[in-house]
Design brief:
This protein is of the alpha+beta class. Helix content is 37%, strand content 13%. Strand 3 (94-97) and strand 4 (100-103) form a beta hairpin.
Amino acid sequence: MNDFSDINHARRDLLIAGALSATAAAVPSMADAQPAAGPANPAPIHAGVSLKVNGKAEHLELDTRTTLLDALREHLHLTGTKKGCDHGQCGACTVIVDGRRLNSCLTLAVMHDGAQVTTIEGLGSKDKLHPMQAAFIKHDGYQCGYCTPGQICSAVAVLDEIKQGIPSHASADLNAKPLLNADELRERMSGNLCRCGAYSNIIDAITEVAGRTA
């Protein structure tokens, strides 16, 4: 009986020892383990970008990830264009590129090499205001003023869109020239937010510039 028990204990010890040896062989020790290689951190890629900004030729060497907004503000020091949400939702960064308005925070500067860019500084000056700027002042189309540069750039482009016959979601007939009315203007300006709530005054200003009675 004792011999049989001793044999069972010896067999169990042998199996345990074998299992431990197999595990040790399969799993490297901490000393031998190599740290996992992390993702490479590539150096920024720079490219030359030529723009005509407010009638002036500009050449910049930029990180290819630089937005048009940051190129204007940080590199050309045209700080009239505002950085609001930085997600294309507030319209404070609106500028006019090759005759079309866009949110400069959502586009890369390198995508517009050779383009003509108009910012609020290029529309008018304190000595010679653009008609839209003058109308905003007359109709109190701003309060804090933060969104105003984007509002004005967008408003100027809106009138040009209507003049070209480009329809909006508010246009009753997609095959006819859009009407210049409050509903049309509100729809087209809906991407420009005013936290002060000067919307009705902004519509009055745009309407006056369009040649109608506000």
